Amino acid sequence: MTRLKVEDIKDIPGQLDRYESELMEKTGCTLREIACHAVGIEEESLFSLLDSVKFAVVPVESGQGIIEGFCETISDIVWHIGFDVFVTGKADVAGIAQAVEKKAEVVMMADDHRFMALNIKSGHMSDNAKATGKGYAAGLDLMAGGLKGRKVFITGCGPVGWSAALAVLQRGAEVSVFDTRHGTAHLLAKYVKELMNRTIVIEESLEQGLSNHHYIIEATNAAGIIDENAITRQTHIAAPGMPLGLTPEALRKISGRLLHDPLQIGTAVMAVEAGGPVARGTYMRSDG
Ligand code: PYL
Question: What pTM was computed for the model?
Fold first, then answer.
């Protein structure tokens, strides 16, 4: 997992509205609608909870420590989704204690390894990598006007790419994958065969996967691996990978058919998962 830098996130709070209007141009949906689409709930089922579920974001000092602005950015995204949220004054255990004392139902915190949203009442945990994969799959689904029957190529079979692959399979897509660590691609194919009785294709190379597909999920931590030669008028890319996997020329050519952000979509899905009806077991998701 790439550790975010201050410069990756410092502009997010001030530009959330502009970011969301770009999302709406690309997907027809707001950030909250995309998150609900990812989780498989109707947005209406969230409304009654927005006023009652309180979130606390707790700074964590372990490992490489605090990223300046990280917790405030998470808080702003959760607030943008409509929940009541605060950042605890203290970090680590003292911060968690403050969250409980202030009656937070969901605690969000990240160390160097995991970023989670934990619903203290229900025990439901939303993991950022899984949520991000689902969120970007949902965004691609909305950009494409539905992925059912379409071919989707996923490069990067880490936790985010893995989650995205399962999500697009559930949306009826045909999936091909590639990872420089061939073992992870084979492991994913094996898991999908055993768990979903579905077959995914393992591409021989990144170039082959890119040349064979218009719908792409870039979920690696490599920069600039997709150049303008891979981009056609039909190409749509959902790119959760940090740093951005497109070259500047590819970025220019893809124009509006690209989803990419360092935190927003993943955090919004976490908030809806951990603060919404699914965490309370009061909602059968639309995917059953
Ligand atoms: C959750 C992000 C998404 C991509 N990389 C992940 C990352 O940067 N993780 C480290 C987060 C550290 C946060 C720090 C704090 O400010 O509380 N412990």
Answer: 0.96
